[in-house]
What does this fold into?
Amino acid sequence: MSARFLDPDGEVYGLPTFPFRMAPGGYATRRQLRTAGLRPGGQPVAAQLLWYSNRRRKPGSPPVLRVAYLYRVDLARPVRPMTPAKWAALARANAAQRVCPECRTDAGYRIPLTLGMCVPCATPAHQAA
It folds into this structure.
């Protein structure tokens, strides 16, 4: 167990700080709250996790300091349900991403941003015809 980032009182870092995977119960990240159907609900950050990561490190450089903010689960609120207007807006946005700007047809899938058009329109055989 590494005590490098262990500061449960927040004297060193200003917030209660714990090493990676060492947070006590009752705290959760935004993702963990969302998985549980909750949201922070306006509460301030209650604690943080700190750790060194080699994931985004460039060769020859030192490890990168990473941080994850924690929120209290007992103060979290339920996620607001989607309204019919939000569902309709989302459906329109998804439909707009399916229409090819070249042939103006519904491709049946989201148009790749790398191509900017549906796959048949992007192939050289289709462009030559």
Notes: Residues 97 and 110 are 5 Å apart (CA to CA). The chain has a mean pLDDT of 90.
